[in-house]
């Protein structure tokens, strides 16, 4: 299928907020909005394993659209996983029920970095591009489609640790025991991620998010040595070719990094729920859009309590240069009806706020 001539976009509120343009209401989408909290996703997962869904464009498109059929979300995010990149580099990844990802043969010594496939690995990832193109057509311009990648450091964490851990001591130890091999690995990942993201744009992605979910494992200096230079290079090189495509960075737990974003090439900064919206705005300055940051645990509360928290969050961020989201992903036991409360409340409350402020301004 040709990526050219996609249907015109009907709801551009997410892209407008990402670019710092005025909006009619605050746009909202949710990390992990497609997933196990939806019964229709669980039904499909009974028939297909996780990576089969990722690798089959028809299935990936279907799952991407599931939350949009239920809720008035302002963006879709392609169904895939950050771990398809280590797979493309030749590593085996299993998704274990209740345990998350498992690498049977992780990188255990610096020599193991040489095991990773060299050269262009993009044939291996063509199913992601096909899924994006198909989904973009299926969306019929309803909302924009977001592509994504894991950040180099977060991918390194999985590739070196191999499975769940209390301390993630192995990847952290590499930084001090094997700094050269660490940089070699991070460089190799960066070299793959840049063309991977560019091809996602060519295939139909209208914005891109970098997930540095394990940024919080790093102290400020380690972050500036092993995470930030690679994140900057990715943003710089994407922006050189695609200046109009919004780039979102979600570096979970990296409070100390907020001032670095001021002068970066990222358009939108994702905040987790431990970051204060007003302090974060102060640190980042007025020229970036912010995204986040409702504690996913709020979704376990009553609808009335959810409405209160959404209102508070909206007041803290303000309605401009703001994309509402959770501070991390959906949990499998969330009630879908509570997602509806979140989405509808954010829309209604922000529309009222924007109408009042425009009347006040013109009177
Ligand atoms: O709706 C969406 O957000 C798009 C799909 C998406 C998935 N993973 C699907 C998924 C996205 C954007 C991701 C990103 C991802 N994957 C991240 C970054 C975001 C974050 O959560 O910090 C990370 C760290 C991963 C790696 C990963 N994949 C983990 C740790 C797990 C297990 C956790 C869990 O929820 O079970 C996965 C599996 C995964 N990725 C599932 C989904 C829907 C659940 C697996 C299943 O269906 O059995």
Task: Write up what this structure looks like.
It is globular, with a radius of gyration of 20 Å. Helix 6 runs parallel beside helix 9 (179-203) and helix 7 (152-161) crosses helix 8. The termini are far apart. Helix content is 48%, strand content 11%. The chain has helices at 13-19, 39-47, 50-55, 57-70, 84-88, 126-139, 152-161, 169-177, 179-203, 220-226, 228-241, 258-261, 277-284, 303-317, 336-362; strands at 76-77, 94-96, 100-102, 145-150, 207-212, 247-251, 268-270, 289-294, 322-326. The longest helix has 27 residues, at 336-362. It is an alpha/beta fold and 363 residues long. It has one domain: Alpha-Beta Barrel (TIM Barrel). Strand 7 (268-270), helix 13 (277-284) and strand 8 (289-294) form a beta-alpha-beta unit. A 7-stranded parallel sheet has the order 1-4-5-6-7-8-9, sandwiched between helices. It has a two-stranded antiparallel ribbon with strand order 2-3. The protein is built from 15 helices and 9 strands. Coproporphyrinogen III binds at residues 31-36, 45, 50, 77, 79, 81-83, 95, 100-101, 148, 211, 213, 329.
Major sheet summary line: 7 strands, parallel
- In angstroms, what is the radius of gyration? 20 Å
**What order do the strands of the largest sheet run in, or round the barrel if closed?**
1-4-5-6-7-8-9
Q: Which segments are poorly predicted (pLDDT under 50) over 5 or more consecutive residues?
A: none
- The number of E-state strands comes to 9
CATH third-level topology = TIM Barrel
Share of helix, binned: 40-55%
Instruction: Just name the CATH architecture.
Output: Alpha-Beta Barrel
Instruction: Indicate the CATH class.
Output: Alpha Beta
Helix-strand topology string: HHHHEHEEHEHHHEHHEHEHEHEH
């Amino acid at each position: 299928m040709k990526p050219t001539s996609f249907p015109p976009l009907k709801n551009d509120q997410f892209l407008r907020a990402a670019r710092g343009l005025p909006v009619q209401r605050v746009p909202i989408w949710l990390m992990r909005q497609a997933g196990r909290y939806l019964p229709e996703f669980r039904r499909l997962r009974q028939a297909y394993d996780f990576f089969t869904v990722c690798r089959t464009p028809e299935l990936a498109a279907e799952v991407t659209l599931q939350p949009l059929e239920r809720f008035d979300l302002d963006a879709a995010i392609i169904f895939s996983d950050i771990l398809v990149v280590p797979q493309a580099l030749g590593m085996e990844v299993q998704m274990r029920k209740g345990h998350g990802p498992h690498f049977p043969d992780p990188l255990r010594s610096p020599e193991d970095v040489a095991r990773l496939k060299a050269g262009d690995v993009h044939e291996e990832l063509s199913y992601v591009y096909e899924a994006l193109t198909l989904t973009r057509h299926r969306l019929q311009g309803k909302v924009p489609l977001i592509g994504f990648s894991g950040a180099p450091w977060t991918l390194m964490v999985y590739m070196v640790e191999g499975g769940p851990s209390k301390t993630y001591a192995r990847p952290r130890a590499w930084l001090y025991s094997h700094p050269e091999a660490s940089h070699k690995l991070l460089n190799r990942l960066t070299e793959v991620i840049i063309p991977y993201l560019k091809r996602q744009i060519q295939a139909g992605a209208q914005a891109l998010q970098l997930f540095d979910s394990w940024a919080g494992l790093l102290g400020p200096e380690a972050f500036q040595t092993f995470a930030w230079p690679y994140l900057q290079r990715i943003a710089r090189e994407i922006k050189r070719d695609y200046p109009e495509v919004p780039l979102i960075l979600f570096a979970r737990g990296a409070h100390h990094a907020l001032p670095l974003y001021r002068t970066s090439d990222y358009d939108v900064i994702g905040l987790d729920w431990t970051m204060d919206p007003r302090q974060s705005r102060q640190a980042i300055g007025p020229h970036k859009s912010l995204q986040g940051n409702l504690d996913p645990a709020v979704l376990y509360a009553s609808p009335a309590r959810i409405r209160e928290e959404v209102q508070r969050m909206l007041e803290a961020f303000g309605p401009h240069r703001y994309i509402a989201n959770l501070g991390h992903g959906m949990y499998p036991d969330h009630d879908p009806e509570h997602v509806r409360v979140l989405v509808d409340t954010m829309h209604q409350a922000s529309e009222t706020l924007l109408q009042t402020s425009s009347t006040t301004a013109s009177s």
